[in-house]
Amino acid sequence: MLFDLLDLDRRVNKVAAALERRRAAPSSAPLEEVAFDREVSSRATYQELGSLADDPLVRGVCAWVAHLTLERVTSPDAVAVRAARLELGAVDATASVDEHVRRLLGSERDARASAAELERVSARASDAHARLAERRAEAARLLGVADEPEPELAAKVLSATRDAFDVIGPPGSWLQSVQRAIASDASEGWPAKLSVRWLHEQLSRGDLFKGVRLDAPRPPLPLGASSFALALHRLGAAWSWADRPEHTPLCLVRAPNDALVARRAALLASLVVEPTFHTRKLGLGRDRANLQARAIGRAAVLWLRMAALGAAAHRLSRERARATFEELSEEALGRPLPRALLGVLPAPRRTGGLGLRAVLEALAERDSLRARFDEDWFDNPRAHLELRHEHHQLVTARAVIPLESGLAALDARLRELVV
Question: What is the pTM for the complete model shown?
Answer without folding.
Answer: 0.95
